[in-house]
Amino acid sequence: MLEIKSLRKNFKSGTEALKGVDLKINKGEFVSILGPSGSGKTTLLRSINGLENIDNGEIFLDNKKIDRIYLPEVQKKTGMIFQEFNLVNNLSTINNVLTGLLNSSSKFLSMFYLFTREQKLEALQSLETVDLLDKAYSRADELSGGQRQRVGIARAIIKKPLLLLADEPVASLDPKASNLIMSLLKKINKEFNITILCNLHQIELATQYSDRIVGLLDGAITFDESTQNINKANINEIYK
Ligand SMILES: Nc1ncnc2c1ncn2[C@@H]1O[C@H](COP(=O)(O)OP(=O)(O)OP(=O)(O)O)[C@@H](O)[C@H]1O
Ligand SMILES: [Mg+2]
After folding, report:
1. Which residues line ligand 1 (CB under 6 A)?
2. Of 165, 132, 128, which is closest to residue 148 (Cα–Cα)?
3. For the chain, what is the domain count?
4. How far apart are CA 203 and CA 56, in angstroms?
5. pLDDT tens, 127-174?
6. CB-based contact 163:77 (threshold 8 Å)
7. Ligand 1 pocket: which of 39, 51, 214 to mutate (most atoms <8 Å of CB)?
8. What is the CATH number of the domain that holds 176?
C-alpha cells in the first residue's frame, strides 16, 4: 500500500538526512523503524505525508504517486502521532480529537470549533477506542502523559486513516504507559486493518509489537526483516 523508491532528502544546512531509501509496506502490516538519534526516522515519516519536500525519489500510496495534486488526499488517508503528543493544552479532550478532522483548508472553522453532532459522536467513538471516554470533557493539560498520547491516537484515528505514522509515540512515557500505547496501536492495526509505520528507539518494543523491523542508520536502510528473523548482528549494526 506504500512504496518508497530512492528517497533522498537534504537539508539546507548540508545534512543528507535520507540517502536513497527504498521501502515497501503491505496493507495491514505493523512495521517499526529502528535507528539511533539523527538517523533520519522523523524525516522519513514527514516525507510520506508531505511535511517535508523531498529532493529525489518517489513515494506511492495505493499505487498512486504522491505529488502536489494527490497530497491532500494522502493527508486525509494518513494519521500522525507524535512523541510530544502535540495537543492544544487549553482545549478539552474531545475538541483535541475533533481537530483531527481538520485539514489546512478548514483552519477557519477550527477557530470556532464548529463541528456537527455526527462529528462529535465520531470523536466520542474514537475516545472509546482508546478507553478515555470518561475524560472527554477534561482539559488536555489535566491528563497524564499516557492519557495525552491516547488522545493523540484518538485524534489520528477519527478520520479513519489507511495508514498511521507514529513518530516515537512512547519516547516520553514510562515502560508501563509505553506498553499500553503500543498495545493500543496493535489493537487498532488488527481491528481496523490500519497499516502502521512506527519509529522507535526501543528494540524490545519493536520486537514485541511489530511484524517487521527496518533498521535505519545515517539516512540509509541497513536491514529490513520480519521480526522473527531479526538477530543481534542487525541490532549491533545500528547501535554500534
Ligand atoms: N529542519 C531541519 N533542518 C536541518 N537539518 C535537519 C532538520 N531536521 C532534521 N535535520 C537533520 O537531519 C538528520 C535526521 O534527522 P531526524 O530528525 O530525521 O532523525 P531521527 O532519526 O528522527 O532522530 P531522533 O531519534 O533524535 O528523533 C539529523 O542530522 C538532523 O540534524
Ligand atoms: Mg525523530
Report:
1. 11, 13, 15, 17, 35, 37-43
2. 132
3. 1
4. 30
5. 999 999 999 999 999 999 999 999 999 999 999 999 999 999 999 899
6. yes
7. 39
8. 3.40.50.300
Pull the grid cell for residue 1: 500500500
Q: Is the pTM of this model over 0.85?
A: yes
Instruction: Summarize pLDDT for 174-187 with one digit per residue, the tens.
Output: 999 999 999 999 99
Atom from ligand 1 closest to the CA of residue 52: 1
pLDDT at 19 exceeding the cut of 80: yes
For residue 158, give the nearest of 88, 114, 99 by alpha carbon: 99
Taking the alpha carbons at both ends of the chain, their separation in whole angstroms is 32
Phi then psi for residue 133, to 5 deg, are -60, -35
Q: Hey, which of 10, 11, 82 would you mutate to test ligand 1's pocket, going by the most ligand atoms within 8 Å of its Cβ?
A: 11
Rounded to a whole number of angstroms, the CA Rg of the chain reads 18
- Domain membership of residue 152 as a residue range: 2-238
Write the CB contacts of 49 (distance below 8 Å, at least 6 apart in sequence): 74, 75, 78, 80, 165
Identify the residue with better confidence: 21 or 84. Answer: 21
